[in-house]
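Worked example 2:
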Amino acid sequence: MTNETALAQQACEACQVGAPQVSEQELPELLAQIPDWVPEVRDGVMMLERVYTFKNYKLAWAFANKVSELAEQEFHHPAILLEWGKVTVTWWTHAIRGLHRNDFICAAKTDQQLDD
């Protein structure tokens, strides 16, 4: 089982205002488990982002729908930008204005949607 697979096997926990953000020590360890994801800071909020490319709009759309279903299952919702042949997925935890372990779990689960 790869690190990414292990992360994807974990469950999201309910996250409230005041929940701990991922620490500076945890960040590189968690990022190593999802190597295709990039940390981005927007308006002072750290987020995880990955761009997926596809042969056409229909395949990108189908993937975006899978990510939407995942978001509903986990009750954790990313930003999803659907374009021709491309889907950009951005995870962060709104309640804590930053990254929580849930975001890394959901990023790993997003990657698994490519295999389905």
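The chain has one domain: 21-112. The longest helix spans residues 57-74.
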